[in-house]
Amino acid sequence: MTYDLTVIGSGPGGYVAAIRAAQLGMKVAIIEKYPTLGGTCLNVGCIPSKALLDSSEHYHAAQHKFEAHGIEVKGLSVNFGQMMNRKSSVVDQMTKGVQFLMKKNKIDVYHGVGKFKDANTVLVEGEETHEISSTNIIIATGSKPSSLPGMEIDKKRVISSTEALTLKEIPGHLVVIGGGVIGMELGSVYNRLGSKVSVVEYMDSLIPTMDGDLGKELQRVHKKQGFDFYLGHKVTSVKTKGKKVIIDAEGKKGPIQLEADYCLVAVGRRPYTDGLDLQNAGLSTDERGRIPVNDHLQTAVSSIFAIGDVVQGAMLAHKAEEEGVFVAELLAGQKPHIDYNLVPGVVYTWPEVASVGQTEEQLKASGVAYKSGKFAFRVNGRAVAGMDLDGFVKILADEKTDEVLGVHIIGPRAADLIAEAVVAMEFRATAEDIARICHAHPTTSEVTKEAALAATGNRALHA
Ligand code: FAD
Ligand code: NAD
After folding, report:
1. pLDDT score, position 130
2. Pocket of ligand 2, candidates 151, 267, 290: which has the most ligand atoms within 8 Å of its Cβ, to mutate?
3. How much distance in Å is there from the Cα of 41 to the middle of ligand 1?
4. Does domain 2-145+270-340 have CATH number 3.50.50.60?
5. 179 lines ligand 2 (CB under 6 A)
6. 158-267: CATH homologous superfamily?
């Protein structure tokens, strides 16, 4: 078969690229090696983790908040099997949705491993073998969990996020290696369900790539929720002993040893190009396993593009989607643009963490003169009504021009609140602009307005 565009990989990067290209009139094929579409995000990432986060949040609220609300529940317990079944049905619904969208947009779906025969030909090796000729090709093969050197993820007791999303029992003690996004999200799921959760993090802060104040507040709140943290600790060995896992780590104050029922390794993800036979197309990967691309997401071969987790940049579903649309529109002769500084990052703990633009550490390092306004949720009417008192909004603005340079939120539904900041920054708003916009009362978005007021002349109204 011959196509205008062939996409290898059906994650949020790949399937969105395919849809946009089909909308623009291209004849499109998509290749996926797994039986279901949607990639990491829909099958073993964003969607199942959020389903379990939502379920465990309900349980936690029933245990810790209902009484204060005057709701009495007797004999509360977790039906873990049902929780997992609901998660699987959410995944099923979402992956079938992508299948429907492929059909609706007349995109040909091939199941099997896509391999380059040459720069314009891809072989699909599945139950049947197909040879596909294509004018242009997008590699959207995503990423896989990383492990630590010399330590094997046996998928039984030493697990990655994929297994943590399908456990058959609630661990008594879960040790998480890595206090990043996955560690804090999946750690939260099991902490709420009753596991003892210990997080061993190499750096001195949780979520260390985000603004430092967010990591501190996240740690404070999760300590209250029952987490144990070992920051500044380097894991030196992970060994299984029957049904237990022994984790050794080295900190500034000396070595520690933890015994767990399960050890979740959440130390990042690596780009995935196994089986693609890149060399047949004249392509190779860089020292970190990524496919090198230029500003147009074009590889060393001009008709082959690469997007999402398999290339440089944040490993986020919405970043992959933007890149998918970018390449499709570029191929259609349009002039698309992505501002990577405005890709928001979210951690779906409770409270949620959300961020866009520059962190305070980045502004300091680059010598930009800035001012900062911070406002806590503690005194916000909606937050008090909902008993969501932790967290704050921090707005960083240019000292001279007042342009908003970064917004960092930890608080209730921060994931939704960050959208206002992204829109503001897209239109190059000043902190004064946000301060002057009417925000509905009572909403937690008023905290953003107060932070903007604080950033412009220290005039927050409810401080
Ligand atoms: P992927 O989604 O990884 O898809 C790649 C696809 O390519 C896969 O289906 C794979 O099977 C297929 N493939 C690979 N090689 C071949 C081949 N040779 N032939 C055919 N098919 C092939 N991001 C967010 O933005 N928000 C979140 O809340 C979030 N939560 C996450 C939670 C977890 C537990 C994890 C692990 C990740 C999460 N992410 C989240 C990250 C997000 O899942 C990824 O950034 C996103 O899926 C990347 O999309 P992609 O299209 O580049 O690749
Ligand atoms: P991450 O980069 O967020 O966190 C990994 C953490 O492990 C870091 O804090 C790092 O310092 C630590 N670490 C590394 N080596 C270590 C060691 N030897 N000992 C102790 N700690 C060590 O990676 P992740 O949490 O595995 O997530 C992978 C990717 O998936 C991320 O890029 C993330 O963007 C994406 N993801 C996103 C979301 C979301 O958007 N909500 C959710 C889950 C995953």
Report:
1. 98
2. 267
3. 5
4. yes
5. yes
6. FAD/NAD(P)-binding domain (3.50.50.60)
